[in-house]
Specification:
single chain; alpha+beta
Amino acid sequence: MPYEQERASRIGHVPTVLSPAIAEAMERWQTPSLEVGEPTHITSRLVPLADLVLDQRPEPTYAIAFDGSNQEVEARAGYPSVRVGYMQIAGVYVNIAQFLGANSAGLVNARELEKSHITQTVNAVLPGSNVHLKGLKGKETWRAELAHSFVTSNITDFGEPFTLTDALMTIHGGPGAPVTNLTLSKCPSCGSPGRPEQVTSATGGKCSEPMCSGALYPTDILRAYEEFSEDGENIRPLTVAMNIAERLLLVSYIDGFFRFAPQMLAQGLFITDGPLAVYGPTAPMKSRFMEYWGQLCDSLERQQIPVPLLVGIEKSGQFVDHAYAIKEHIPAGHVMMLDTPYVNTYILNKDADHYYGKDEFYGRRFIYKTTTDEILVVSVPRVPGGPPYEKPWVLPDGSSTPTLSEQFESYPTLRATLETLDQLQTRLYPNAVIPVALAHSASSLPLGTGRSVLTLLAQKSLGMPEESISLSRFKPQRSGFRGSR
């Protein structure tokens, strides 16, 4: 690492460029080929969307999309640096009929388009390095503030406020039936599993070890605090918190409809930005989302109500890159089953029998080419439930037998989901659909001036020396949720 103000030589790269060892090493490496060659391994997995079974359901009348963004800023640079993390989650409700009706005689009626959707946002701030509550260390402060942000973030569309903490308790119980307590695998303070178990309610608890008695929070079950750094950047735990908050906001709406108007679920399309999956320390939550979905399907079936359409849409990443590479071999209006041997062989470079997706996914990925030749990478849950990925059955000769999770019949909502997304496309961005674009626009925390304003807000609130730009030049945004249905 250089000293402060030290600069590298302008020709300092020359020894690296001329090194025979470096050139020889890179010549040995291989990268995924974008040349598909004979595409039978692609075409054999394609099905026209019109050939899939269309489950009996009313036409979708609304879509709700969820997206989030975050930023970590330095309130004080240097050492010890003081950092603060912001996150913003948005949910956008789109009236599908009104949205489609905004197009008249080839022109878009901007007023009708504006009336067709409602945007609601929730904002939160979390402490970073060298920020703490009185009497608490950095990680303890982060845990306490994450719990506070979840319990104060709520929706009121269904009457009484329903918080993200309520949603967290609900997916550990069932539709309309939240649990009263959560059992943690260990105490975040002392690391003890506890005897008896470590238990917390929605309002909190205490470590069962007498020598500790540290505070416990319901959000500790997410284990996002394991990524927290006392002195460095904390964008990773901030991203974990944002992603799980997006999913819990979606659960808040699905459970609200289930409790007050379950028949309305059959008319809805619920969209998350990114796949139906959870990663990192929150990966164990995958089983909770999957079990909640299975219970929801069972309950709605008993009431003879079709399940809602639920889909995750990816805008970037390894699977999106692969979809672009094979795009020319997929006819418009066709959907591709990404079975596990294909994923392992052509996307991940793993053994064909590698058990992909068992720990993170509660929905299965598909590639769909729309009727306008755009590419969508989506994930959809099984109905009436079950794991979307199973251990592949690879025979000794290298061939494979499809598992139950690799059969289109396990995804009866797939056709209706993709047909609805086909109607909601936009040419504003490549391979985009309107609800997700609106949600992203509403949730985005901008760079540049926006980042400067967030930095100044942190400096002003923490009593740090402020930069020259004044906050008075900008109108503060109202926090919490906006709008009503």
